Amino acid sequence: MTSVSNAAWALLFPNLERHPDKPAYLCGDDVLTYADLASAVARTGAMLAASGVQPGDRVGCVLPDGPATPIMLLGAMWIGACPMPLSSSLRPEEYAWILADAGARVLIADTGHPAAVASNIPVLPCSPGGPEGLRTYCDFLEPYAPEANDLALLLYTSGSTGRPKGVPHRHRDIMRPAETFGGLIGLTENDVIFSASKLSFAYGLIASFSLALAYGATAILSPEKPGPAELLQLIRRYRPSVFFAVPTLYNLLLRVLEPDSYLGGVRLFYSAGEALPAATFKAWKLMTGYEICEGIGSTEAYNLFISNRPGEAMPGATGKVAPGFEVRLVDEADTDVAAGQPGLLLIRGEGTATAYWNLPEKSQETMLPDGWLRTGDMFTASDGVFIHQGRADDMLKVGGWFVSPQEVENVLLTHPDVVECAVSGCRVEGLERPQAFVVARNGVEAGSNFGGELRRFVREHLPEDMCPVRFQLVAALPKTSTGKIMRRALVQA
Ligand code: 3SK
């Protein structure tokens, strides 16, 4: 077995040589330079080793986004352990289940956090102090030299149903987004990256950790979950050049933006996590003058595998295959579909996970022996441009035809009084039919025949079978901790 670079070393060392005093992270008034980061990582590695953490051990990390998060992740990787960044907002039983499933040796968390209370493993409180304090503890420790298949990271997907699945990644996988997607979006060390998605979500981790450090850029971290107005303030304060967010957040930002809102400095607005509705793309362009560049990735890929190219983003399209990936669209028998037909997306590329943690059957279903990975997403493609049709398990079968909830939602979202919506299936006389849940603009009232108006509107644009049989006004839609709409939570409502 050949050895590969330790990911922590590969992410830190070139920066120490090139620009030790450059800020790696900005958070509130804290500035963490690359030298500060490296010192703190060595110290954290030593602290973990002294606590009995061995190469291969899983280390749970439940921390609000801030300098401590990359320090802890890199510190664990440095000694060959496998960090598991977890969202701060899971339920106690979810923490208990995940930490037990992973067989985590220790948990890094505030001792009062529900994760610490729920876990029955040693809790290491995280108090790295300010950058000066970190520097005085600098302690050199050789990085662990991993073998090619040694794990560097264990991520748990926040699936909308069932138990979360552990997705292990190797040291070299951590570097892969920078070798492929980073070039696609033209990243350089001069970029200042701000991801509204957190480090516990693969999308945020790719942006604020793998890409930021591999390019020697600077990333902004925010411990809170800022609302749209606070996000605008952060953008004005730190002037990021690249902004990553999910579609829901762009919709929320549109509610607080004004035509002359200052977004100076941002050269690229990027969206992933869910399909970006064409209506959001257009409203954003109209309001700000900027395009939103959309792509799709997954925790299993630890990368983005289809993406628009900056400056050429197309409303309603996810884009073209990203560098480093091959893709196929297949039917349920794994036969390639005819051009233009919807199919299940398979991807193949270096750096994708080769199995789930502790789930051999699910792994066999998803990760195929020849390297192809089932994404669970449906797409159509023409001229190399991919259009997302939704998650395969969200698709409805109405009158013998597949109905994409997203296609119906995209029409509803063009109605001026619809802020957000989700379409799911319901049963009418035993048959599956679409139903819609709608968050309306302020002032629209239940009982005002809004449903009738929406029905008329959808019928103008789509065939009868695709028209929801009922429209329910709701105050908010159920979402996962990463901001994805949980359509299946609305099935029985
Ligand atoms: O979950 C996603 O959609 C995603 C998107 C981009 C990168 C990573 C992930 C997990």
TrEMBL record:
GO terms for molecular function: acid-thiol ligase activity; ATP binding; CoA-ligase activity. PROSITE patterns: AMP_BINDING (PS00455). The keyword tRNA processing does not apply. It comes from the Bacteria. Residues 15-357 form the AMP-dependent synthetase/ligase domain. Residues 407-484 form the AMP-binding enzyme C-terminal domain. Keywords: Ligase. GO terms for biological process: secondary metabolite biosynthetic process. This is Benzoate-CoA ligase family protein. It comes from Solidesulfovibrio aerotolerans.
